[in-house]
Design a protein that fits this description.
By secondary structure, this protein is mainly beta. The chain contains one helix and 24 strands. The chain has one helix at residues 309-323, and strands at 2-10, 15-24, 27-35, 44-50, 58-63, 71-78, 81-90, 96-105, 115-117, 123-130, 133-140, 147-153, 160-167, 171-179, 185-192, 202-206, 214-217, 222-230, 233-240, 246-253, 258-264, 272-279, 282-289, 296-303. A four-stranded antiparallel sheet has the order 1-24-23-22, with no helix packed on it. The protein has a four-stranded antiparallel sheet with strand order 2-3-4-5, with no helix packed on it. Strands 6-7-8-9 form a four-stranded antiparallel sheet, with no helix packed on it. A hairpin with a 2-residue loop joins strand 18 and strand 19.
């Protein structure tokens, strides 16, 4: 695995963060939050498009709602439509619970009005597709009754509750939900020591219809997860917090419940919340970081199969010596 390139593509907002990426109608799209600070009253979701594989980017939309701090924009292509998901609370003049929303476009230019989704107070964080349906894990950040719930949509318009209490083992929140070729669900679930001591990530598994789940505690704390499968391996991009905070590509070793760091992206401080597009052996990803000062949006390309030839040759030389 090798980092081919990384480019800062946006830093015009005071705080630029929480990204996702998708390919739609041949172009790459990146969405992220712009605000005056990490938490503020006027967060909006900005959408960029690249028609030349990430060499240049243009702002094509800005999603904003009066008094809402929109955060964590997510992209999903479904039925030839580009979907934008996001959520946000009202902070002032009087705090109100967050609401999840969806916007739709058939061409990436003209957008529908925002459609409220699921229960008020539940954050539909990331959407994944399998077998012609959409699934999303929502979380309710509440000190005495926090949980994650699983939702399903057959048409991309409405989401029905599938498992109302998917997990309540501590402050469970952000997730990376993926499905393998056999439609087995794998859920990488973040936990934080906010309302209890639990902080190591969880890994969940379920077979269709995804109503019964088994959970395993992993060996690390992570943030902002996005998972993907590559050649049968469960890979993810996460924020690691053991030592210096950083954004890294990791492998989730499901058999041993371990998270192994594979590649560290240029990053530090306020960072992570990546989006991924995997095409053949290339990983094209978005993320944000403050390692160059102001928090900014980055676009990176990673070769998932390129090996360290020097290291490989040394290993082969050692093996030859052992055989002789």
């Amino acid at each position: 695995m090798e980092l081919i390139s990384v480019t800062k593509i946006w830093d015009r907002g005071e705080h630029n963060a929480f990204t996702d990426i998708a390919r739609f109608n041949g172009a790459l799209y990146i969405i992220f939050r712009e605000g005056s600070a990490h938490v503020s009253n006027e967060g909006a979701l900005r959408l960029l498009r690249s028609d030349d594989e990430g060499y240049s980017w243009q702002s094509v939309a800005l999603f904003a709602l009066k008094d809402r701090d929109l955060r964590d924009g997510k992209l999903q292509v479904f039925n030839q439509t580009l979907l934008v998901f996001g959520a946000g609370p009202i902070r002032e003049p009087a705090p109100k619970p967050l609401q999840s929303y969806c916007w739709k476009s058939h061409d990436g230019k003209a957008w529908s009005e925002p459609q409220p989704l699921i229960k008020e107070g539940e954050w539909l964080w990331r959407i994944s597709a399998t077998a012609g349906c959409l699934y999303g894990v929502a979380y309710r950040p509440h000190e005495t009754d926090g949980y994650v719930a699983l939702y399903k949509s057959d048409d991309g318009n409405s989401f029905e509750g599938l498992v109302p209490r998917l997990n309540q083992s501590g402050y469970v929140n952000e997730s990376g939900l993926i499905f393998d070729e056999n439609h087995l669900a794998h859920c990488l679930l973040r936990r934080d020591p906010v309302w209890g001591p639990e902080q190591k990530a969880l890994l969940g598994h379920s077979e269709p219809p995804y109503k019964i789940w088994q959970w395993t505690e992993l060996d690390k704390r992570i943030g902002g997860p996005v998972s993907f499968l590559y050649q049968g391996r469960h890979l993810a991009v996460v924020r690691l917090m053991d030592g210096e905070v950083r954004t890294s590509i990791v492998e989730v070793i499901e058999a041993t419940a371990q998270i192994n760091e594979l590649l560290t992206l240029p990053s530090a401080g306020d960072t992570s919340y990546a989006g991924v597009v995997v095409e053949e052996h290339l990983l094209k990803m978005s993320y944000y970081s403050s390692h160059e000062g102001k928090s900014a949006i980055y676009f990176a390309v990673v070769d998932l199969v390129k090996r360290d030839l020097v290291k490989d040759n040394l290993i082969k030389a050692d093996q030859s010596k052992s055989d002789s």
